[in-house]
Amino acid sequence: SGDGTIEIVDAPCVVSTDSQNQEVVLGQVKKNIFKAIGDKSSSKPFQIKLEDCDITSNTKVNVSFNGVGDTDDATLVSVNTEAGAATGVGIGIYDNANKLVEMNTGKSTTTLAAGQTVLYYTANYVATKDTVTTGYGNAEVDFNLSYE
């Protein structure tokens, strides 16, 4: 946990402190790049670092992402609907093979390395409507790890 408390876990790896509570800044994006549903902004990379990995009993990690699904495309996370929020876009999260990790249902699987394993992802805005309006595009997403 990133709040100064200690947490004991029964897992083959520990999530690095700098990976626990991240902010991925997608930045300002021009509205005119979204000409059709599915058009994407440029990708912003982020990573999840796993440390102290013991691969004697588990050799793979599954990562899933959970958040509020977009009402037009539930595979994407919805941007928050506060006053001043953009509309017509969601946020997609992609694995290192550039495959969409579907929100709340999908997962990406990676083989663990002894010691440290770094999981690479990208995020970007994706048009979910023919018309995108300007505004804030903030969202919250949790990641969950399971091992096999």
TrEMBL record:
Locations listed in the record: Fimbrium
Alphabetical keyword list: Fimbrium, Signal
GO cellular component: pilus
Superkingdom of this protein's organism: Bacteria
One GO-annotated biological process of the protein: cell adhesion involved in single-species biofilm formation
UniProt-listed PANTHER family: FIMBRIAL SUBUNIT ELFA-RELATED, FIMBRIN-LIKE PROTEIN FIMI-RELATED
Pfam families in alphabetical order: Fimbrial (PF00419)
Record's protein name: Fimbrial subunit
Residue stretches making up the Fimbrial-type adhesion domain: 6-147
Family as reported in the entry's similarity comment: Belongs to the fimbrial protein family.
InterPro entries attached to this UniProt entry: Adhesion_dom_fimbrial, Adhesion_dom_fimbrial_sf, Adhesion_dom_sf, Bact_Fimbrial_Adh_Pro
